[in-house]
Structures are given as C-alpha cells and as structure tokens.
Amino acid sequence: MFTLPRGRAATWLLHAGADIPRAIRVALVGSLFGTLPIFAGGVLNTVAVAWVLDRRHPTMSFHIWLALEVAVCLVRLMVLVVARRRARARKPTPTDTYVLLAPLWGATVGYGALVSVLSGDWVAATLSFLSAAAMVGGICFRNFGAPRLVAVMIFLSLGPCCIGAVLSGEPTLWLTLLQIPFYLFAMSAAAWRLNGMLVSTMKAEQENDRRARHDELTGLLNRAGLFQAVRSRAPGHARDSARTALLYLDLDGFKSVNDAHGHEVGDTLLALVARRLRHLSGDASLVARLGGDEFVIVTEPHADPLALADVLVRELARPFHTDGDVPLRIGVSIGIAMFDHHHDELDGVLRDADNALYEAKRAGKSRWVAAGARVEVKAVA
C-alpha cells in the first residue's frame, strides 16, 4: 500500500479522472512505483548520455548537466527504495517527494538537450535529442496511471528542444516546433486513453470481486466473503476467545411466510432482516448470509455474544413491514461458538455453532444455545 499524495502539486499531477474510488486511486499510485526495468533503463540512458557528452565537452554547462542527472537519479532511487520498504511495512510512503522528483528529472533531460544544441555540436545535439525522445515512451508507459504527470514530464523533456532549435540559428531544426507539440499531444492523449482503459478494467474487477464476496439480495457477505474477511482481520483479532464469537442464525417461520405471501415478499423480508442484523450487530462485526434463511455474525471486539443473542432473539421477533404494510412475524434460533486457541479456524467454529443451532431448534426454537455451555434463553415476550 502506497500513500496517496497530500500536497496540492502532487495531488494535481496524480489526478486520473473524476469519480475514481479510493482503492483504485491507491492502486494507480502503486503502479508508479513498479516497472523497475523501465526506471533502471531510463536512469542508465540519461546518465550515460550526460557522461559521454560531458567528456566530449568539458564545459561548465555540461558539468552542471551531469551533476544534475546523477544527483536527481540517485535521490529518486533512494526515495523509491525507501517507499517500497515502507509500503511493505504498511507505513506512510514519501509519495509526494517521489512524484515531484519525476518532473525535475524530466527538466534535467530537457536542459541537457538545450545545452547540447546550443554547443553547435550536431553529434551532441543528435544524441541528446534522441535520448530525450527515447525517454518519452518510457515516461508514457510507466506513468500512464497519472496522465497529467506524463504530459508535464514530456513537456519538460522535449520543450527545451524547441527553444534550442530556435536559438541555434539552424532553420532545419525549426521543424521541431511542429513535431514536438504534436508528439506531446499524441503521447499525452495515449496516456489518458491507457489510463481510462486501466481504470475501467479495475472498476470491473472491483465490481466482480464485490459480487463474488457479497450476497446479491441482501448486500451482506456470502460464504466466500465471510471466509476472506475473517482471514484478513488483524492477527489475533478473530482468534481471541475473550473477544470474538460466531453466531449462527436460522429464521423460524420464514418458510411459512414465503409460502403464504410468495417469493417476492420472502426476498423483501430477507432484505429487512439483513438490515436489522447490520444495525444490531455493530459496525465492526461481520454479517453474512450463507444461503436461504441462514445468517452468520462474527462479533466485534469486546462484544458480549450472549447479550447480543438476547437482543437478536427479541428484536427479530418484532414484526417486519413490507411496502404493502403487511406485518410479517418470524423468530430466530441461534447457535453460538467461540474462537479460541484450540479452535481458531472458521470451519471448525462454524461447525460448532451449527451444532449448537441444531440444539436450539430441537429445544423449541426462538432461543439461543452456546456450544459447550448449552445455555438456553427463550425469546423475550
């Protein structure tokens, strides 16, 4: 996870379009820290060209160019290494610094092209122009997650070529005044197009992932989503027997309502039950529908599962009202099992809760049973 930018300049440079979810913006920022071969190739290219031309023209302007290239590339490399290490450690990353160094690097490439053409050495000018042009492809395809950054870097890399062409006094080079703006526009447009395709793909993947992990009718987690959510919780969170429990719920009387009023009303009732469960269980709890009229709650930290079960038995016995204002009455039977050091996998805890649920059903429904304790509490009248 790489940190989103905080400063205005970096935020503007990394703007990738409106209405992009935060998770996708984080992924786009992360893409700027990848593709290391392209980064390494760019560093070697620019430093090598600056070094060769500094040897060819040992003047102050070329000395400055080489010093800038080496300094900027080294700082970018150090920031990149630090950012990747901090990301692996789940710490804030120096994203703003890394992003702002990219245009600075583009400016050093442009400066080199300018001093090369002004030197009057057409070998130097050709080499520096080719180097700047070659970098554009890498800039575009490494940074298209941030198309504004691409446009700024290309402008700073190639813009000085136009200035140098005008100041050189060579009319043939004036053709660059047409070529480079067109190239800037074309590559920037390509970056925006690639960015749009990437964002669309990521949104589709995000939606597919959501559907794979959530119940379509109620919006709750499904079985796969529940298992993934439990695995992704902080270490020890779902395994502390003093803090976390699993409640397995089965609605009493739902089949009768479904048969009497039809599947549409039954679906509406399930959605209303899901809404009530979310409200009663707390924001930090995991609530899932396993199928039919079976639900599961993995409690939040410090919650009292027995007290929660009391509340659920009482509150789900209250009537539900559909759009037609038909009062629907059901109940709920609950099996409770605890996560502990000997039974910390969801499969095992779910099985214990299911067995406790069976005991609650057999004992007369509308009550809860805790696995092991076999304590029963009837519904509150």
TrEMBL record:
Protein name (Swiss-Prot/TrEMBL)? GGDEF domain-containing protein
Which InterPro entries does the UniProt record give? DGC-Regulatory_Protein, GGDEF_dom, Nucleotide_cyclase, Rev_trsase/Diguanyl_cyclase
Specify the taxonomic lineage: Bacteria, Pseudomonadati, Pseudomonadota, Betaproteobacteria, Burkholderiales
TM segment ranges = 26-52, 64-83, 95-116, 122-141, 148-167, 173-194
The alphabetical list of record keywords is: Membrane, Plasmid, Transmembrane, Transmembrane helix
Family annotation (Pfam families): GGDEF
What positions does the domain GGDEF occupy? 242-373
- Species this chain originates from: Caballeronia insecticola
Q: Which domain of life is it from?
A: Bacteria
